[in-house]
Inverse folding.
């Protein structure tokens, strides 16, 4: 069988080197056991050369999982900061910086942490390529709060962890919607089953995140006389990592179904390996439609003529 991947998917996969590909990148980096960045301290971004209007910290580990978190400007400077919610070992590669919440702007390459370095300064060489240098900036302990993951849509339920650091005499609390604040002293995980805004406060430090519950999409496929295995490949949308899943065959009405937890672009194939997969046509056309959360699309599939 012939491997078939459209130009759209090819472009997306190339683009995702710094996105979904980054999720597993840290596995290839040797890490020391001692933390290079400790929980409650900061990672800084020097915006002097980039002059981005906004700066986002995109991370996929150590409390975050594919989160784009807006960084806070430090006074009237070009420096932006974000509090680190968990200890990070030396050598860990788990984040990058970008200029937009989505992927429409600029972004750095994947970044690693290094003992004695907490500040990242991008610059452009004569060819326009971006490089990032690391340096150290004094980081006195201050009262900080954080929430991970950061403002997400979810299906079913979601675990949210709240943090407070260097609180001194202040009492740290988290609040779900308009409910009474709850005091906590250590990182605390709460489970949400409905849309809610979570607010964490300690002294003058406060932050809020909204978690929005969405419905699964239910995809139905009519493949005519085809009765073999069928797989669905999902990418984009709110996928953290693309991949294959096998669809369920219904013998009563001769259809295939799949429940998608969120939204994604979809491809239907005969196997779960691109080296052997044959891609189904949708209504006689090679296409990769976007399926929105909560939708119930029905697709008519055929295999390309031999």
């Amino acid at each position: 069988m012939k491997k078939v991947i459209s130009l759209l998917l090819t472009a997306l996969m190339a683009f995702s080197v710094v996105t979904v590909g980054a999720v597993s990148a840290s596995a290839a980096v040797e890490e020391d056991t001692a933390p290079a960045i400790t929980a409650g301290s900061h990672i800084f971004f020097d915006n002097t050369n980039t002059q981005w209007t906004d700066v986002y910290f995109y991370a996929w580990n150590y409390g975050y999982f594919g989160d784009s978190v807006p960084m806070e400007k430090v006074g009237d400077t070009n420096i932006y900061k974000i509090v680190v919610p968990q200890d990070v070992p030396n050598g860990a590669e788990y984040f990058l910086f970008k200029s937009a919440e989505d992927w429409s702007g600029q972004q750095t390459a994947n970044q690693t942490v290094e003992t004695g370095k907490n500040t990242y300064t991008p610059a452009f060489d004569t060819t326009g390529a971006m490089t990032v240098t690391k340096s150290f900036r004094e980081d006195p302990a201050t009262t900080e709060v954080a929430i991970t993951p950061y403002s997400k849509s979810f299906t079913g339920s979601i675990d949210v962890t709240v943090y407070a650091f260097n609180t001194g005499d202040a009492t740290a609390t988290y609040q779900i919607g308009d409910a009474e604040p709850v005091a906590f002293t250590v990182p605390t995980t709460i489970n949400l089953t409905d849309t809610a805004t979570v607010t964490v406060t300690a002294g003058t430090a406060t932050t809020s995140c909204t978690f929005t519950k969405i419905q699964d999409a239910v995809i139905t496929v009519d493949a005519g006389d085809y009765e073999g295995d069928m797989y669905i490949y999902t990418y984009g949308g709110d996928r953290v990592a693309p991949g294959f899943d096998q669809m369920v065959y219904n013998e009563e009405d001769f259809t295939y179904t799949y429940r998608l937890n969120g939204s994604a672009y979809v491809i239907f194939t005969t196997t779960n390996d691109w080296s052997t997969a044959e891609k189904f046509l949708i209504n006689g056309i090679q296409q990769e439609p976007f399926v929105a959360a909560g939708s119930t699309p029905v697709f008519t599939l055929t295999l390309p003529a031999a």
Notes: The chain has a mean pLDDT of 88.
